[in-house]
Design goal:
Chain lengths: 96, 428
């Protein structure tokens, strides 16, 4: 029995900053290979290809585990802005 | 926040930051630790095992008081193919001897405890504040800016982790390169103490540390890990980020496949997931160590790239402690001279250079290069597991000797390749 990524993230405590996205992506960025990299490396599965077949990347910062993998891979390409969430916001590990 | 100027501001409440704060506060300096999470440890994760020797020096007997999970008595290494495995199980009283001991920890509680130790020595902890920027005047770091408020200090210690945006901003550290880091994911899975003792052959507070290589990373440089906590297990994978991005499977799928492997599935069976976490890990050794000191500033811990992943031994927290010790000593000496310029704080690097932390990292540079060999993560595990599996097979017909088997495998892989790799091993 394998849990889906949404179920896994569901057990985490994440304090969502509704006002500010700490990661901004460039939706116009057109290199598909770059998009596929992000889909593979994000441990939270937040980078997805839109299901309409148009090859558009979707991204949601809610659920981010703040690892920085997308920043290391694609800053200045798909990832146009990356910061840590504001103080007291974001994931709060109870185990770690 | 306060208008007063502090001796030291430490950014980040991980192992490095809390230990540095503890040491400095203990010597009477005014220390503020600023942590962006709601408490020290809230943003931190490890595989994870802490080798005790360095923290033991700072806080003798810490393991009796700190929230450690289990003391490691048993080490296991497995090589995996999709459906086969070879496991080495080493149990030794040596692992428990003082100075050799290591502990499985969970960082949320462990770092919080370290933060409290720093507080008890007089350090002030300001949690829930992200340091947005540093105050730089006349080319000297003079304090921090958080939420629009400024706070001044003679020295700012950057202990803000692998993604130290502040060290990058100062130009001390280059942006992380994907080939220099691994991304790790971990699940903490709750089981009863009895289930853990039974599944891993443990009793009391004994713990097991287990690493896995081969099919579980789909040939990507990296490996799996499993550590036993008191009443849960920490299980996960690390993969070189560059190789992962070029690979064929998403990390999430590798993690699921790993847990479905016939060796792993019975270990996690029936357990409840209680946390899913992820983190980057510096893994390029000496070549990713940044500029460590500047006017009014030092970089320590993961922010300084001080980790050492040899596969079966994964170190970072012990090195974070050493860097905190070196930084604290350098700052105390700088304080006695009231000179916080780069040339005064350079003492930190001098101390670190002669410490076991840097010496071990530098000594391992060749090893780290060797670890980049892709055959280590697919062909070799497959060959070894396959040969050992065939050792136990009896079937009709003329039996082949092990020698026939070895020859066949060597031919399949290419004799030159193996010769070259064997030479590389001898040089390590």
């Amino acid at each position: 029995m394998t849990m889906s990524i949404d179920e896994k993230l569901g057990v985490d405590k994440i304090i969502v900053d509704e006002e500010n996205a700490h990661i901004i992506i460039d939706k116009q960025y057109s290199d598909d290979a770059e998009k596929r990299k992000l889909i593979k490396i994000c441990p939270a599965g937040l980078y997805k290809m839109e299901e309409d077949g148009g090859g558009n990347l979707t991204f949601d910062y809610i659920g981010c585990l703040e690892c920085g993998a997308c920043r290391a891979i694609s800053l200045g390409k798909v990832v146009s802005g990356w910061n840590h969430p504001a103080g007291a916001m974001g994931v709060e590990y109870r185990m770690g | 926040m306060s208008d007063d100027k502090f001796d030291v501001i430490v950014v980040g409440g991980g192992i490095a930051g809390t230990v540095a704060s503890y040491l400095l506060a203990k010597e009477g300096l005014s220390v503020v630790l600023v942590e962006r999470g709601n408490f020290c440890g809230s943003k931190n994760m490890t595989g994870g095992r802490l080798y005790a020797y360095s923290l033991e020096e700072v806080m003798p007997g810490f393991a009796n008081e700190a929230p450690v999970e289990r003391k490691v008595f048993k080490e296991r290494i497995s090589l995996l193919t999709m459906d086969q495995s070879v496991t080495l199980d080493v149990r030794s009283p040596k692992f428990a001897e003082s100075g050799n001991d290591s502990y499985v920890v969970l960082r949320s509680s462990f770092d919080r405890w370290l933060g409290e130790k720093a507080e008890s020595e007089g350090a002030m902890i300001v949690a829930g504040y992200r340091v947005d920027d540093l105050i730089v005047r006349d080319d000297k770091v003079c304090g921090i800016i958080s939420n629009g408020e400024e706070m001044d200090a003679d020295v700012v210690v950057l202990a803000d982790g692998v993604n130290s945006l502040l060290a990058e901003k100062l130009g001390m550290k280059k942006p992380l390169r994907p080939e220099h880091v691994a991304v790790g994911v971990k699940e903490v899975i709750q089981l009863t103490r009895g289930e853990i003792d039974e599944r891993f052959g443990l009793s009391g507070d004994e713990g097991c540390a287990w690493s896995f290589f081969g099919a579980n990373t789909d040939g990507i440089q990296g490996g799996g890990f499993l550590y036993t906590n008191k009443d849960s297990i920490s299980i996960g994978l690390t993969c070189n980020l560059q190789k992962l991005s070029e690979g064929s499977k998403p990390l999430m799928q590798l993690m699921n496949d790993f847990q479905s492997h016939p060796v792993v599935a019975p270990l996690v069976k029936g357990g409840n997931l209680i946390e899913y976490s992820a983190h980057l890990e510096p893994e390029a050794g000496a070549k990713m160590i940044p500029q460590l000191y500047g006017n009014g500033v030092l970089v320590i811990g993961d922010a300084a790239g001080l980790t050492l992943n040899l596969g079966h031994k994964v170190r970072g927290m012990d090195l974070a402690v050493i860097s905190a010790q070196c930084a604290a000593q350098a700052i105390l000496e700088a304080k006695s001279r009231e000179d916080f310029t780069a040339s005064s704080l350079r003492k930190y690097k001098d101390l670190l250079d002669v410490s076991s932390a840097i010496q071990n990292i530098e000594a391992r540079d060749k090893y780290l290069e060797f670890m980049e060999n892709p055959l280590l993560y697919n062909a070799y595990p497959l060959m070894i597991v396959d040969m050992l599996a065939r050792l136990f097979v009896v079937k009709g017909g003329r039996a082949q000797t092990i020698f026939d088997d070895i020859l066949k495998n060597i031919e399949a892989l290419g004799k030159n390749q193996i010769e070259n790799d064997f030479k590389a091993v001898k040089k390590l």
